[in-house]
Structures are given as C-alpha cells and as structure tokens.
Amino acid sequence: xxxxxxxxxxxxxxxxxxRLSCAASGSIFSIALMRWYRQSPGKQRGLVAHISSSxxxxxxxxxxxxxxxxxxxxxxTAYLQMNSLKPEDTAVYYCNVLLTNGLNYWGQGTQVTVSx
Length: 116
What we know:
Distance between the termini: 40 Å
Number of strands: 11
Order of helices and strands: EEEEEEEEEEE
Strand content: over 45%
Mean pLDDT: 96
Low-confidence stretches: none
C-alpha cells in the first residue's frame, strides 16, 4: 500500500507564493516520476509539472518561469514552489506518483486559491 499526502495549499494574493509538498510512503520500491496536476471547477485535470528520478523537470507552458519542481529522493518527497501566482492558478492541486513497476497513486489534493 502506498500513501500520498499533499500539503501547503492555501489562500494567497495575486503575485504571491506558495510551496506545495508531496510525501509518498508505504510499499515503495522505486519512484519513476512525481507529478503535480491541477483541476479547477468545470475543467479537466491537467499536468502542471513532473520530475524524474534524476531530477529532470517538465513544466506546462502556463507555469514555465513561475513554478519550480524539486525532489528529495531520500524522503520520497516532491515540492512545487509557485511564484508570481495568478488568479487562473486557482485549483485543487494533486500529486501523482508513478512507480517503476507501472503503478501510480494519487493524493487527496490541496486547494490553492489566488485572490485579492
């Protein structure tokens, strides 16, 4: 069994910053990718960023230059540093962990609200 726990969401003003954390625990042999998705009301869940085991990052165009993903392999934890936040970044942010055996697991999500 694998548990994924996200934290760090909240309410922030436009232009502000937040740092999300995603901690994986349980029966983890090896993690291939740690991914952040987001979903806002009426929209499909979309990929925001992911990071490989060698810390190679990928970003959606909408967050390039503003968000930074990082990873601590020893702690099975990924972080998403979000700067210059915009109202359109408002969403529930979900962490997804893809294991090298092909299985993937989701966290419960954390709400990020960008509003003045």
